[in-house]
Structure formats: structure tokens, C-alpha cells
Write a structure and sequence with these properties.
This protein has 276 residues and is mostly helical. The protein is 55% helix and 6% strand. A hairpin with a 5-residue loop joins strand 3 and strand 4. Bound molecules: zinc ion (2 copies).
Length: 276
């Protein structure tokens, strides 16, 4: 794979050189930091606008109000704090990783970008599986960090990143940095990769089983799969996130489920294996 380096100074109007590519006025590193956050609120905002959708919910509204002990206001505040933390750390990481060379890497060919995407998905899944599982096994980490995410027993879209800031740092920011570095993707590809990972995470917490959801066609790790993990009986299963279920399958933490229709409307994801 050959990368061509484009020098930003060549865009100067005083220069006699004609650039072949115009760089964005805003750096890809900045976009890679802020676009996924905008995507988070836009995508989860769409779910809010869709309303209650009782016929597609995985839990009834009454169950949500009863089981979730934190208010929506607290959740929004918690997500904003975690995102502010995430912005600071990812800007720092991007600064260290790319330096201030003022160069933009040209995009490789599409098959290479697809391969980098796949590698990044595997790296992120691997990192998140083991860190997530460790946060459940280690009582201290669970009590002080990961339990915050589990206060949403009935997840909803904009609660996807309701985490302790340290969890955001360990799982998402470091996981993202590793995916970026190991896959060798450019900061421009990273804008799309981080945005896609954000969409996937929001969708896995949407609490709905909507017909025609394309993510459900391509991924077995979905809103019902992750719903099992959010239930009090399910916290020893379905740690895999955000893309595949492979690590759960390999390491015996996979909990298959069936989707049963509720008489009140909607569906219930029911484990079909004995819970230990
Ligand atoms: Zn968990
Ligand atoms: Zn979750």
C-alpha cells in the first residue's frame, strides 16, 4: 500500500504549484473528533422523534419508568460530560499521533479502505470485549465505573454513552485509537469509522426491534442481543460490542435469545439457554 503525501502549503495562492486535491478547511482530526458526537445526537434524536413505538419496543414504557433509576435529564448531562472528556482526550491523542506536520494523507483505493474498516472493527470488538468483561469480573471496577452504564436496565438510544468518563476513555477512546492505529486508516477514513461505530452503539441501545433495520440484517449483535446484557439476569452474557458476537461465542459467554410478542405490544428478548 503506497500513501501519497499532500502538502497543505501547496494550496497557497502565491504558490505556482497546482494542487491535485483541496484539503478540507477543517482538519480531518477535528472532524474525526466532532462528527461522531454530532452523529450521536442526530441519530438518537431521530429515535426520540419516532416516539414510543409501543408495537416495536423490547420493554414497555411502564417497565422503563420502573426499572431505570436515573432521569433522562441526568442521562443527557452524563453523556455530555463523557463527550467533553472524550473530545479533550481524542484531540490530545490525534495531536500526538499525527503531529503538526500539516500534511494530509491521500485516501487509498476503496478495497484497501474496506479492509482497514474490517480490521478496525475486529480490533475495536476485541478491545471492548475484554475490557467490558473485565469491568464485570472486577468488583471494584464494576461498582465504581461500569455500574453507571447498567443503571439503564431498559436502554434507550441517547443513553448509549451514559458511562462513567473513565469507561468512555478506556473502552471507546482507547479502543478507537487502537483501531485507528492498527488498521492504518487515514484520519479521513476514521471520521466515517467512528461515526459508524457511534451509529451502531446508539442502535444497540435503542430498545426497539424495528422491521427493516439494515443493521439487524448485517449484524447479529443488535438491540435485542445487547438488551439481554442489560437485564439483571444477563450481566454474565453478551459482552461483545459493538459489531460482532464472535468473542462471546468463542469464550462461552454467548446467550442466544428468542423474540416473543408481548400481549401489551412489542417484543421480549428471552434467553433460551439456562442462566448460571
Ligand atoms: Zn456491561
Ligand atoms: Zn450497553
Amino acid at each position: 500500500m503506497e500513501s501519497i503525501i499532500f502538502d497543505r502549503r501547496m494550496t497557497n495562492s502565491s504558490s505556482n504549484l497546482t494542487p491535485t486535491v483541496m484539503p478540507f478547511p477543517v482538519s480531518d482530526e477535528l472532524l474525526g473528533t466532532f462528527v461522531p458526537i454530532a452523529v450521536y445526537w442526530i441519530y438518537s434524536g431521530i429515535y426520540v422523534m419516532l416516539g414510543d413505538l409501543n408495537q416495536y419496543r423490547l420493554h414497555t414504557k411502564a417497565e422503563e419508568d420502573k426499572k431505570n433509576v436515573v432521569s433522562k435529564r441526568t442521562v443527557v448531562k452524563g453523556v455530555l460530560i463523557q463527550q467533553a472528556f472524550q473530545i479533550a482526550v481524542s484531540l490530545l491523542l490525534f495531536t500526538f499521533m499525527s503531529g503538526d506536520s500539516g500534511v494530509v494523507l491521500l485516501q487509498p483505493s476503496l478495497p484497501v479502505i474496506v479492509l482497514q474498516f474490517m480490521v478496525a472493527m475486529v480490533v475495536m470488538d476485541t478491545w471492548q470485549y475484554f475490557m467490558h468483561r473485565f469491568m464485570h469480573i472486577n468488583k471494584f471496577l464494576y461498582k465504581h465505573i461500569h455500574s453507571k452504564h447498567h443503571t439503564l436496565v431498559v436502554p434507550y438510544a441517547f443513553g448509549a454513552l451514559y458511562n462513567h468518563p473513565l469507561e468512555g476513555l478506556i473502552l471507546d477512546t482507547i479502543g478507537g485509537a487502537l483501531s485507528f492505529l492498527i488498521s492504518g486508516m487515514t484520519p479521513r477514513t476514521a471520521i466515517f469509522f467512528f461515526s459508524f461505530a457511534t451509529i451502531k452503539t446508539v442502535d444497540d441501545h435503542c430498545g426497539l426491534w424495528l422491521p427493516g433495520n439494515l443493521l439487524h440484517v448485517f449484524f447479529n449483535n443488535n438491540s435485542a442481543y445487547h438488551d439481554i446484557h442489560h437485564q439483571l439476569y444477563g450481566t454474565k452474557y453478551n459482552f461483545s460490542q459493538p459489531f460482532f458476537i464472535t468473542w462471546d461465542k468463542i469464550l462461552g459467554t454467548h446467550m442466544p435469545f428468542s423474540l416473543e410478542k408481548r400481549k401489551e405490544g412489542g417484543f421480549e428478548a428471552r434467553p433460551i439457554k439456562k442462566i448460571n
